Amino acid sequence: MKRIGILNSGGDCPGLNAVIHGVVGAATKLGWEVIGFRDGFEGLLPPGDYMVLDTNRTVGIMKMGGTILGTTNKGHFVAKIGKGDVMGVPPEIVAKARSTMELLEIGALIVVGGDGSLTTALQLYREGFPVIGVPKTIDNDLQATAMTFGFDSAVATVVDALDRLHTTATSHKRVIVLEVMGRHAGWIALYGGIGGGADVILLPEIPFKMEHVAKAVKRRDARGQLSTLIVVAEGAKLESGEQVSVKSTEGEDRLGGVGDRVAKLVEELTEKETRACTLGHLQRGGAPTSLDRILGTRFGVKAVNLIEEGQFGRMVSYQQYHVGAVPIEEAVNQLRLVDPSGEVVKTARAVGISFGDD
Q: What is the pTM of this model?
């Protein structure tokens, strides 16, 4: 029997349990045993913090949010210290992880994570670890894959929030600003804004001016549309070029707070009552959508297929409705951003959505 390991690192997101379900199902069919390491890479530290995963353990987990393995974006294996900045995992920590792998006779390790976690996975691969990567981020910002699981669930949360905010905004004739996640990419704001009927969408990729945002609000008032919904991505930059964030001593700075700033400026420029709402971790929680359950399962099965074929150092990738694979090094440190002149942005403009740039 071959024994493989799996861990998920970084932020949680809907669909992680679906990946575990896919891995265990495919591995069991091959007669392999699966070891799930708890709390990300930290579970690799001696003597190893893990659970044995079999089909009985994974029954019914696909519909569950979060991850049965737990996860962390802190600890001994942090490789990303800021946007584009990378530091290596210390050699002594790598050695400890290697000893755990050898002790448990792990023949391959599946790492489910985003840009930072896959940066760590790439280092381990270069150190000789038999690693397979699976992309995970609600931000949908990895260049090497057209979609990541968790994104659709996050968008669904944004759409539901906008549906609810629309009624209260209309009742009070208010402007309501909704801040959503996405880090340096505006995919959640763009798709959630279109799906939820937002009137203004502010993205990191499209520079905006508050005077244009105010004009959009006033145009709606002039047409008798006395409420306005504004969606702003957490990484959207103010006119000064500033990204609002909270400093962090471990990993990247935590973006957030731009919604409050935008709301205050809108109220000053329009004299309309304005409120701000931040969805935050609501976008990470809850049951995954059917799309994320299916995509996560497909990713998990493909990861096992790559192990069977001995294609280590590769990451599962979704392109043109097909699940394939690319080298991990092609996936990390290359963000997939919204194209300001792309078809989706043009669609939004065509139905009257403002991006604060005209």
A: 0.93
Report residue 283 as tokens. Answer: 């976008």
pLDDT digits (tens, 9 = 90+) for 143-175: 899 999 999 999 999 999 999 999 999 999 999
* Calpha distance 340→110 (Å, rounded): 35
Distance CA(81)–CA(297), nearest Å, equals 31
Kindly report, residue by residue over 201-234, the tens digit of the pLDDT: 999 999 999 999 999 999 999 999 999 999 999 9
Exactly one of 39, 139, 141, 199 is catalytic; which is it? Answer: 139
**pLDDT value of residue 79:** 65
Domain assignment present for residue 353? The answer is no
Distances (CA, A) of 193 to 197, 215, 242: 6, 19, 22
Whose CA is closest to 338, among 263, 196, 260, 235? 235
**Alpha-carbon distances, residue 328 vs 109, 142, 234 (angstroms):** 14, 11, 27
Domain containing 264 equals 156-283
Pairing of strands 322-327, 228-233: unpaired
Answer yes or no: is 336 within a domain. no
**One domain, residues 293 and 271:** no
Active site residue 54: no
